[in-house]
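Hello K.,

You asked for the raw outputs rather than the summary table, so here they are, unedited. I folded two proteins back to back in the same session to keep the settings identical. This is the first:
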Amino acid sequence: MAASTALKGLLVPHVLPENCYDELFLSLNLLHIPCLKIFISKGLGFAIVAGSLMVKLPQIFKILGAKSAEGLSFHSILLELLAITGTMAYSIANAFPFSSWGEAFFLMLQTVAIGFLVQHFGGHTGRGVTFLLVYFGVLALLLSSLTPVGVVTALQAFNMPAVITSRLLQAATNYRNGHTGQLSAVTAFLLFAGSLARIFTSIQETGDPLMALTYVVASSCNSIITGQLIYYWNVPVDKRKKE
């Protein structure tokens, strides 16, 4: 009985509404489709958020280990950061559940760190510090009551061209270099898998077509980078230098 009470306290109402808890765990009606969809969506959502805590850490460690950010496009990082920030601000403004967007917060912190490292190892540490100050200043303004909801919605709508341009810039950099440089395969594969899963969770948890379409576009674009990582897998980073 104590275990059942503890389980209910853990799941209700954060993961399941009480009626769904009763259906799935008390009545053992595991084929109750509406409740099953909620459970799967919430589970996936929290798993994505948890995974986002370290999804870009392999990329950060790879840059730090090589003391180089060769192969990473700073403009691509800026556009990706814009898309992540738009999703986070839009979700907060619309009071969407944290499980439907929480990874944006952790990806934002890691992407900002990567942006700074690209500048730092490119010999522009001062520019990197300025980037940090400007970004967090703009973020504070976006999340404040001073920013109209219409502006936040427009920023979310801009996510799609931002994501497309970001990935195409990185893909073009990879193509020009003839390799993927310090781009982390683990990070790229996790981003691709996460954006695919987010299509389902955004439809289920927010019902917002703009959010769902953003993740459809992100998945398509992430697949290009993933494909390049596979194609250039055995190409050494210094191939072009030798040529």
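The second followed immediately with the same parameters:
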Amino acid sequence: MPRTLDGQITMEKTPSYFVTQEAPRRIHAMSPDTKLIVVVRNPVTRAISDYAQTLSKTPGLPSFRALAFRHGLGPVDTAWSAIRIGLYAQHLDNWLRYFPLSHFLFVSGERLVSDPAGEVGRVQDFLGLKRVVTDKHFYFNVTKGFPCLQKAQGSRRPRCLGKSKGRPHPRVSQAVVRRLQDFYRPFNRKFYQMTGQDFGWD
């Protein structure tokens, strides 16, 4: 990490830290005062989105159902990373061995789409920043299906997430979705209790 001077905040992002077993210990050893922002979304939708991204890079992939369940519609296969990542309560348990809950901000991926300025406002508050990013900085990109940042002064175009974001999801049967909702429900409820936030996924 680059050195941070007084009055500066250094940020880094990666989706893999939250689910990597060794990450909390290593980050705590580097800087025990680190503030942690975790963006979460409905784990069923997240798993389907993960599959869509992998499918775009690996066209011959087995069906979502074949990967999500062992032996047809048998037990949910938590060895598959697309499923395992959504077990947020288990990952948070690991992090809470090193960092107090007060060091975390949990951002709703759904609200980041429906109310980006509100969620970004929470991030600014958590980091002790003035609320400078507001509604006027966002517009809804119909093609992508989510908000993008307005064009910054001196820039030729608005800032939107890359091509890999906003792609259509493959069709997954309601029976598969319901099985996964049932599977995740106890983990989601534990996560709500741990964070003190109800994300409304049930």
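Helices lie at 23-30, 43-57, 64-68, 81-84, 88-95, 109-114, 116-126, 174-195.

Happy to rerun anything if the numbers look odd on your end.

Regards,
P.
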